[in-house]
Specification:
The structure holds two protein chains of two kinds. By secondary structure, chain A is α/β, with parallel strands linked by helices. Chain A has two domains: about 140 residues, 3-Layer(aba) Sandwich (Rossmann fold), CATH 3.40.50; about 30 residues, no CATH class. Helix content of chain A is about 35%, strand content about 10%. A four-stranded parallel sheet of chain A has the order 1-2-3-4. In chain A, helix 1 packs antiparallel against helix 6. Chain A is globular and about 80 Å long. Chain B has a domain of about 110 residues: Beta Polymerase, domain 2 (2-Layer Sandwich). In chain B, a hairpin with a 4-residue loop joins strand 4 and strand 5. Chain B is globular, with a radius of gyration of 17 Å. Chain B starts with a helix and ends in a 35-residue tail after the last strand. The chains are: A alpha/beta, B alpha/beta. At the A-B interface, helix 7 of A face loops of B.
Chain lengths: ~220, ~160
């Protein structure tokens, strides 16, 4: 496959072969379960008989990266787990896709702390993001169908469509983008400055703040 | 205070005398504060003495008071399954204290966790290395002066 990939122009044969290959890929996506936290419970619900999604899509949970095509990263990825996730992703054979399930896998969610990876897309490429905390099984199903749609429109033998917007620049340093939630949060130094305050009395900062508020007018 | 615990406190005060810095009770929870020098002996006594008989070590952990001279309070919770009483012991220290792992095997991992997150070194611990954080981790995350997002948080991935 590697020799023929993305080599041919569009014609009757290549489009037919492409659609055949894509049909094969999309109807037998075997997911590798990478259940790292509570979202994995919803992922299990997807597989069980109440929702019964997998059988209908020709999917079968696999526990080996060698046998699977789609990695379902479900849940918080800690920095200790991150190298493991990366290694397992590398062990999967091509072609491979990744679905990031849940807010934690997408962006770290509320765990903006020393131990949590701020989104699994910092270590592996992600094809479909399923938001939610946790996402309901229908949402995960929708994510799977979205991935099927992506695979359906993929180009295997045919050349890739050239990028139309030549002026578009990639982000120079994606990691430096700070989300709004991180602006103006108190730092450890702020807390350390008030460690010796009497807990029962009003903190001095509050008193300062009170003075700075505009006084209520009489009317 | 529970009757059996009164005996325990009395026995401890008899045995350790001046090393006992205070006994406090709050909502039926009894805390004995001791000097760090007797930390190991005290718990050996508490475990082996038939009146105390604390045969289960529930927790060994620490509390950080960064502005104090001896910044850590090491806290140990114990339970006696036979006598059905609980006790908490505390000792102030600066990053070094005797290990309780030879007394209770349970304390082994508890102390590894405390070492991992607070950087308290337990002297005499058989296998003192990180248990939760990655092995090459820098710093001790539960200390009060540790930044919430970690030392590498300034724009780096993670």
């Amino acid at each position: 496959m590697g020799v023929l990939e993305n080599k041919f122009s569009d014609n009757l044969i290549t489009t037919t072969v492409d659609s055949l290959i894509n049909w094969g890929h999309k109807t037998s996506m075997w997911p590798l379960i990478m259940g790292t936290a509570c979202c994995a419970i919803e992922m299990m619900a997807v597989g069980y008989s109440r929702f019964d999604v997998l059988e209908r899509f020709g999917m079968l949970y696999r526990f080996s990266p060698r046998q699977s095509d789609v990695m379902l990263v479900t849940g918080t990825v800690t920095k200790k787990m991150a190298p493991v996730v990366k290694t397992i992703y590398d062990q999967m054979s091509e072609p491979k896709w990744v679905i990031a399930v849940g807010s934690c896998a997408i962006s770290g969610n509320i765990y903006n702390s020393y131990s949590t990876l701020q989104g699994v897309d910092r270590i592996i490429p992600v094809d479909v993001y399923v938001p939610g905390c946790p996402p309901i099984p229908e949402a995960i199903t929708y994510g799977i169908m979205e991935l099927q749609r992506q695979i359906e429109s993929g180009r295997r033998l045919r050349k890739k469509v050239p990028v139309t917007d030549v002026t578009a620049q990639p982000h120079e340093n994606v990691d430096l983008i700070r989300r709004p939630g991180r602006v103006g949060m108190p730092t450890a130094q702020d807390y350390a400055a008030h460690l010796d305050d009497d807990v029962l009395s009003t903190p001095s900062t509050y008193q300062q703040l009170e003075g700075s508020f505009p006084k209520k007018s009489d009317d | 205070m529970q009757e059996s615990l009164q005996i325990v406190v009395q026995r401890v005060q008899e045995k350790f005398g001046e090393a006992v810095l205070g006994v406090t009770e709050f909502r039926d929870e009894v805390t004995v504060r001791v000097k760090r020098e007797v930390w190991r002996e005290l718990h050996e006594f508490l475990k082996l003495d038939p009146d105390c008989n604390f045969n289960l070590c529930v927790d060994v952990t620490a509390a950080d008071y960064p502005l104090r001279d001896q910044r850590f309070d090491i806290v140990c919770h114990m339970l006696s399954l036979n006598k059905a009483h609980r006790l908490r012991t505390k000792a102030a220290t600066d990053e070094r204290i005797a290990s309780l792992a030879p007394v209770w095997r349970t304390a082994n991992w508890e102390e590894r966790e405390t070492y991992d997150l607070f950087g308290v070194v337990f002297e005499g611990h058989p296998d003192l290395r990180r248990i939760m954080m990655p092995e090459d981790w820098e710093g001790y995350p539960l200390r009060k002066d540790y930044p919430l997002e970690g030392y590498d948080s300034q724009g780096l991935p993670g």
